[in-house]
Write a structure and sequence with these properties.
This protein has 16 helices and 17 strands. The protein is α/β, with parallel strands linked by helices. A hairpin with a 5-residue loop joins strand 16 and strand 17. The termini are far apart.
């Protein structure tokens, strides 16, 4: 085939960052008119020209038509050649092995078909989660393909969970981006004024600032307001720690709070290490801050570790998390956020876990608290245990044996 020049639109810096990043699961939370559609179509065309099979899906036929217009316009130099196959009705383009298929995704079953190398779900907050979980993900299995999730948020639904999963990922496979409408340097001020003229405050926060507003099951409010503390170097004071154990998929987290100011001063978070090393890291945090008490979850693997630390002289108080004990533990922390009584670290992992945390009510009327499926709550539990220690510290203070105190304090 002779050389043919294809001209694609100029991307703004955040769009370019998304395109160039190596992650295979990209989650983009963006405001209206921030360039989402252009970004999605650009990535689809780029993959297509590399010989990849692309499925590009959105919520409505109107939006699918916009994508189709973008990709066919950009690829118009190829339309005059016999090399590009175009099926207008099916919204299908082929060039060698490369393929672009534009479909609506309101009904997840309508997306079923062959394998794909790239799946782009546009405005996916408005799609059924099965469009990804039951249909999209299996499409990519054979080729270990890439997925791009682009949307303006719709409160804290499944797209929010995807976004949090990407923010918490440490494997490099997932990556999250957030940009507001204002990030688009090519949007005229007059267009922005027209777009926002009749918006309510909440509409503006969600549609322009791309904020995940609180959903029906949300537990913690005022998270951004209350998560502002920097990590501190050790100083003289009274401290309490909370400890949540894990070893493989989840994280062991130890949180330290100043018992007087009720400000979080430090945190350690780790996984994939053996129990001896985990206890060593807990000892390191103890030696750094000298907390009066470490309130540690004792369920399952926690119990032998709690006993081992107690034998070493650390002031560890076991807390067994049950269906009865967990609700008041969490609700005490929730009230602390509501009343402005606690300040947590300005840390994306903590904030992400707090805003995602959910309450469900059982048929018997009992509250159940947990992270959404696929997300973590290790920081939330550790922070709740530390807060429990702060508000109950007089009853919980444990004095280590004097000889062991000398071992640590010299």
């Amino acid at each position: 085939m002779p050389s043919i020049e294809i001209t694609l639109p100029r991307l703004h810096p955040l769009q370019r960052e998304v395109v160039n990043h190596p992650a295979s699961r990209k989650v983009v939370c963006a405001g209206r008119r921030s360039g989402k559609t252009t970004l999605a179509a650009y990535m689809a065309v780029g993959a297509f020209l590399q010989g990849k099979r692309v499925l590009l899906s959105s919520t409505s036929q109107d939006q699918a038509d916009v994508f189709w217009e973008y990709v066919t316009t950009w690829l118009s130099p190829l339309l005059a050649t016999p090399h590009l196959y175009k099926h207008e009705v099916k919204r299908l383009l082929r060039l060698g092995r490369g393929q672009i298929w534009v479909k609506t995704g309101r009904n997840p079953d309508a997306l079923r078909g062959g394998a794909a190398d790239l799946l782009v779900l546009d405005e996916c907050a408005y799609l059924d989660p099965d469009a990804w979980r039951k249909v999209g993900a299996p499409m990519l299995a054979d080729s270990d393909g890439e997925a791009v999730f682009i949307s303006t948020p719709v409160r804290r639904n499944w797209f929010f969970e995807l976004y949090q999963q990407a923010r918490q990922d440490e494997t490099g496979r997932w990556r999250a981006w957030h940009f507001t409408t204002h990030a688009n340097p090519y949007l005229p001020q007059s267009a922005l004024d027209a777009l926002t003229a009749d918006m309510t405050r909440e509409d503006y926060q969600q549609e322009i600032e791309a904020q995940f507003l609180e959903g029906q099951g949300s537990v913690f409010r005022r998270v951004e307001e209350r998560c502002t503390a920097p990590r501190r170097a050790p100083y003289a004071g009274r401290f309490v720690a909370g400890l949540d154990w894990a070893q493989t998929r989840d994280y062991t987290v130890i949180v330290v709070l100043d018992a007087d100011t009720r400000v979080q001063v430090d945190m350690d978070r780790f996984n994939g290490v053996d129990w001896a090393l985990q206890r060593g890291r807990v000892r390191t945090m103890f030696e750094k801050w000298r907390p009066e008490v470490i309130v540690a979850e004792s369920n399952s693997v926690g119990s032998p570790n709690v006993e081992a630390l107690q034998r070493e002289g650390l002031p560890v108080e076991a807390f067994e998390t049950t269906a009865i004990s967990k609700p008041p533990l969490i609700e005490s922390l929730v009230l602390a956020f509501e009343r402005g009584e606690i300040t947590a670290l300005d840390d994306d992992v903590i904030k992400g876990e707090l805003v995602a945390y959910e309450r469900r009510v059982t048929p018997s009327g009992r509250s159940q608290y947990s992270a959404p499926e696929g997300l973590r709550d290790d920081c939330v539990i550790a922070l709740a245990l530390a807060w429990h220690g702060v508000v109950n510290r007089r009853a919980l203070v444990i004095e280590p044996a004097p000889a062991l105190v000398r071992d640590y304090r010299g």
